[in-house]
Amino acid sequence: MNYKGLSLSHDFVIEKLFSVHYFEYMSNFHFAGETHNFWEFLCVDQGEVEVIADSHHYTLKRGEIIFHKPNEFHSLYANGTVAPNLVVVSFQCDSPAMSFFEEKILTIGQVERSLLASIITEAKNAFSSKLDDPYLEELIRAPIPHPGSEQLISLYLAQLLIQLYRRYTAAYRQVPVVQATKEKNEAETYHRILSYLEEHLSDHLTIEQICHANLIGRSQLQKLFREKNNCGVIEFFSRIKINAARQMIRSQSLNFTQIADQLGYTSIHYFSRQFKKITGMTPSEYASSIKLLSESQENL
Question: How far apart are CA 49 and CA 60, in angstroms?
Fold first, then answer.
């Protein structure tokens, strides 16, 4: 048989990567701004942040992403109240389809969140550079990088662009996909439980309470969270409590005892043990490290 190969087209090609950045900012953080001749996007993982793009001012909240085109001036600052967690990735992509992202603020979904998490994970595998340094100017390859990490970053980044482009562009004709009822119901149940957990951060929840409030069986609940997060629901609940505590510490509006009380911990000692178990640092060590990093940035 006379086979003929087909050269595959690429709507988005990532030529270079300049930075992959995930940082927990203080509530008073301010970045004066810059311009550069490559693309950059900023996505709010937690909290909110004020962004300047050329002459436009935006307030970005959790789950929102903004793209800065090449040579566009951009700066950001926290609002003094909420300490934001941000993902920033800068890259070169000369594909004509990138024009779609100019002057747009989009909202990411669970698929895009997973892709961003994968980009960050592979960046840790590929580079020895610190991902929590917003002033990083050069990525340094790790002495022994994980095989395929850089390629996966490129693929995940291209997939992120494609996902957003497909979801938002009017030119895209989405082919209807029949989703299994079971999968749809599981997704709805999972997000309903996530909302329930976030609404009850000040409570000491048990598995029984979560099951009763969300009309789900214990084994189904645990199976759902292990599939999504590789841990049980109570461990996941502890993680989001500590993430909230980290944000409160950076906001500098409450002391440790008040934070522990607001998050439903029975004592400051139990709160400290849980904090160290999840973060590897005590609340005091975390506050000191964040404060030191913030001060060192201000002196740059």
Answer: 5
CATH number of the 16-168 domain: 2.60.120.280
Residues 21-80 have pLDDT tens digits of: 998 888 888 888 999 999 999 999 988 999 999 989 999 999 999 999 999 999 999 988
Tell the residue number behind the tokens 């109570």, with chain if given: 234
Residues of the chain with CATH 1.10.10.60: 181-296
Main-chain phi, psi angles of 42, to 5 degrees: -125, 130
Q: Give the fold, CATH level 3, of 181-296.
A: Arc Repressor Mutant, subunit A (1.10.10)
CA dihedral defined by 111, 174, 39, 51, rounded to 10 degrees? -70
The helix (run of H) or strand (run of E) holding residue 88 is: strand 85-92
Q: How far apart (Å, rounded) are the C-alpha atoms in residues 226 and 237? A: 13
> 96-105, 130-139, 207-216, 223-232 — which is least confidently predicted?
130-139
Q: What's the predicted TM-score (pTM) here?
A: 0.72
pLDDT tens string 214-256 = 888 899 999 999 988 889 999 999 999 999 999 999 888 899 9
CA distance 244 to 240: 6
Domain with CATH 2.60.120.280 in the chain: 16-168
